[in-house]
C-alpha cells in the first residue's frame, strides 16, 4: 500500500518545475482539494508503514533473541549515525553502488568538482538523489538543460541531515551560489521519506528533480489569480525595477494576495489604482519591499554578505529582526517564533505571515493576506503608535495612515 500510492501520485501529479514542488509542499490555495487529500493520505500511510516496520523489527528481534534464551541486545545507548555510520563508503561511492540512481551518477561523473565534494571526508554533506524514474520523468516534461551544473549543485546540502534532523529545518543551504543572493548559498525546502548514512554525510532518495527557483518577479507573474493586484501595483509604481536591479544582493518581498487588496474595500482600491492615488500606492508597496537583505524563517542574509542562522535543534525559538524597507525612514519589525514544527512570523507584532519561505533566485517571498501599513504615531503622545487592523478604509483614512500622499489640487489637475 505504501508503494502503490506514491507511484500513482507520481504518475498523475508530475513535478514539472520548481513551482509545482512549492505548491504541493506548501498546500497553497491553487492546489485542488483532491491533491491535498492525497497528500494527507500519503502522510497517514507513511506513518502506518513506519509503525509496521517497527513491529516487524520487534518480531525479528524476538525471533533472534527469544525470552529466556540469552541476553537481548542493549539498545539503551545507540551509537549516533554521524559517529557510527551505516557504511564506510563516501557519498559518491554510496550513490555509485545504488541501482536506483544510475542516471544521476552518469550526470555527476561529468562534474569533477561535485564528484570530489561527494568523495571528500573533510566535511559532511547531504545529497538529495533523484531516482532514475524521477530523472526520466523530468526529461520527458522538460527540455534537456544546456548545463546540469546548477541543477546538480542544488541537490547537495552542507551538513548531514537524516530525517530526524530534517524535520527541524525550514530551509537548507545548498552548494549552489547565485548572484541574485549576493553569491551566497541558494536555499532549499524539501520533504523526504528515506535516508542512507554514508561516511561523509547522508544520501536521501527523492522522487523528483530539484530545479533552482525562479526570480521573485517570475513567481508573482506566474500566479495571477493570487498576485495580479500586487504585480500591477509594482508595475504602475515602477517599483518592479527594484526586483530587477543588477546590483541587487537578495531581498525580502512581502507579497500581497488579491484578497489582501480586497480587504481594503472598493473605494480604497479605486483610489489607489487611479492616477490621483498613485503616490499612495507607491508608498504602500514600498513598505512591503526589502532589498539586499533576505530573511528566511530560519536564516538572515544581511546586506554585507553575512549569514546568520537561527537555532534549529527543535528547541523553542524567538528571534527579533529589524528590516529597512524601501519606504525611507520606515523599518519593519519582524518576530520569528518556533515551537516544535510550527514556525510563525509576525510583522510589527501584529500581522501574521500566511505562507513562509517561497524561495526565489534573488531572495525570498513571504505571502500576506492583509495589507501592511506603516504604524501611525498617535497624535496625543510622541511615544505611542497604533496599528492598522486590516479592515476596509476610506480614501481619507488611507491618506491619513500613509501620511505622505496628498490629493492633487485643482491647479495640479
UniProtKB/TrEMBL annotation:
SMART domains to which the protein is assigned, alphabetical: FAS1
Native organism: Penicillium capsulatum
Domain FAS1: start-end pairs: 88-210, 214-372
Lineage: Eukaryota, Fungi, Dikarya, Ascomycota, Pezizomycotina
Pfam families for the chain: Fasciclin
Name this protein carries in UniProt: FAS1 domain-containing protein
Region of interest: Disordered: 56-80
PROSITE patterns assigned to the protein according to its UniProt record, in alphabetical order: FAS1
Record InterPro entries: Adhesion/Biosynth-related, FAS1_dom_sf, FAS1_domain
PANTHER family xref list: FAS1 DOMAIN-CONTAINING PROTEIN YLR001C, PERIOSTIN-RELATED
